[in-house]
UniProtKB/TrEMBL annotation:
Coiled-coil residue windows: none
Protein name: DNA-directed DNA polymerase
Catalytic activity field: DNA(n) + a 2'-deoxyribonucleoside 5'-triphosphate = DNA(n+1) + diphosphate
SMART domains tied to this protein: EXOIII
Described function: DNA polymerase III is a complex, multichain enzyme responsible for most of the replicative synthesis in bacteria. The epsilon subunit contain the editing function and is a proofreading 3'-5' exonuclease.
Source organism (scientific name): Rhodovulum visakhapatnamense
Exonuclease domain sequence ranges: 490-660
Assigned EC number: 2.7.7.7
Signal peptide bounds: none
Enzyme class of the recorded protein, top EC level: transferase
Membrane-crossing residue ranges in chain numbering: 12-32, 44-66
Key words of the record: Membrane, Transmembrane, Transmembrane helix
Amino acid sequence: MHERLGLRVRFALFFGALALGGAVLLGLGLWFGHARAGGPADGYVIAGVLAGCGLLGLAAWVGLLFDSNVARPIQALAADLQTRARVDIAADIDEAPARYLGALAPAANAIHDALAATREAQARAIAERTAALNREKAMFEALLRDLAEGVVVATLDHRIMLYNRAALGLLGDLGLDRPLTAFLRSEPLTHALDRMGARAARGEAEAERFLAATDSGDRFLMARVSPVAVEGQRVGYVLIFHDATEDLEAHAELDHLFNTMLEAVRRPTAAIGALFDAIESDPDMAGEVRSTFFAQLRSEQAMLVDRMNQVADRYGVATTRRWPMPAVASDDIFDALTARLPEDLRFEGGRQFIRCDGFAISELLGRVIEGLRADGQRGGFVLRAVPEGREVCLELHWTGAPVSDGQIDRWLAAPLSAGYGEYLGRDALEGHGTELWAEPTETGHRLVLPLVAAAAPVLTPADPRPEFYDFSLPRAAAGTLADRPLAGLGYVVFDTETTGLAPRQGDEIVQIAGLRIVNGRILRGEVFNTLVNPGRHIPASSTAVHGIDDAMVRGVPDIVSVGRRFHAFCEGSVLVAHNAAFDMAFLKMKEDRLGLCFDHPVLCTVLLSAALYPHAEDHTLDALACRFGVRLDPEHRHTALGDALATAEVFRHMLDELQAVGVRTLGEAMARANEMHGIRRAQTY
């Protein structure tokens, strides 16, 4: 029975029994005194009642003091020690509530320090043994993130275990443990996997190639898929792909140009042939008739030339689009030239960005400069990049003899580089849709090469903690979601900031943020965070809490757009929030406008805290963060993303706590939280 009674209940029963026993003994003493002394009993009864009430009151008062200063601090110390035994928490135990327990609180902190020291020693040993692995991991991350092709590694049931930056750019908002088929049309992938399996059965291990479309259908990807096998058993596959949309469009356009050219040439050629036949068949043709035939020949020839020029122009545009043209800084081209031809060559002016093949342009200008220097009649070479509207003109100035168009043509007629095969300098100009010419200046001469201007690239800081892979994803569990282990679920921990506390009275969301937890890891690289236009005034009292005012939300998307994106972000996940009922009320009320239903399972850290720590009266986010040693940045407190991140850290520790007390599945966690639903009204959160 004592196991079913809590410590505080047992202490209360102890003091109650002490008071009751004292009252019984007092009553027996007064009865014995009255029996020996005789006389009226009124005085003894009054004395007994007063003394008994005083004794009961004294026992209750001492019991309350004992409960407040002994029983509850002992329970708090026990809970803190249990938490630190299960979860690695660096913060010391708060000794203030246990100040009347003598050396017990310092002893508990000593145990905590010893446990922390042991864990630290273990962590050092593990870190020393895995240092080489971490170096390889860093190299792997750097290589994979900056690989030009998209790379995705997925399980056999198409859950993403790895993706890189290029894949993110091609397929959209990828995420670990999300289905790849939500971003890529599944039929071509499934067929390719089937063919790969058939080839593997025949002992062939080559990659299978296929063409696939993104789920939205706006891009076509050329992909190849290879199996991932462990000890001879296939556990997943690797998908490597690149964007083939422009290649396919260019191929189709070139086919169309070829067919157009055939049609354009066929009729004038036939007409010219017929005219020649007519002239040759009648040598004695009258002069006027012959003149008419020759005029018709010239007309057909002019039409043929015109159509050929039109096709050539379109072909030039098509080939220019196909050639890789990144944004290149003029400084990079000039630096390459001065390194190759250092004598008597300098550049002036500011940096400009141009869209070009930097190597081809450097080779082209280098060949021209070598040609100009060859006879020793020119010097004082200066390079400049001059912006001219939508173009940037690369100018090469010199003093001395001029250069003829014939010399320039000879330099352009040679192959550009051994690496480009038979690709000529003239081909490079045509590929860039430009020309190169010479002209005199006031101080000498110059060559002008106009190229398309480009915007300066936007440099963004790299994510210092990339989290784009997890090869330890648990196997897909059978059964309903409620029966799945908590450790095998994906979570979206979120928070909202609002115009007020009453959604049914017109208050609206002004910010929503969430981040994912997969396989026990907080994925800081997979974050949803946006302001929301509430369509109404934000009261000053609310702005004082979260810092968001009317000016900040002016022009940002409304809840319909944001809500649909957030719903997609949460697909297949369990929602987690601190006081989740408040945040879910705002989302639920918008379901009709969104045309979507937030029917995800929901866990509330307030209710889970009440289930794990029933003796605690404070279940605020600050109190939970203090319990688990989570640091809350004051600048980010009461921002949606800051509070969501703090809640995620708290919830990650709670998962270990729930496992330790025997709560292992989602259904069990929701049941324990629901038991606290009625109790939470009396709690602070």
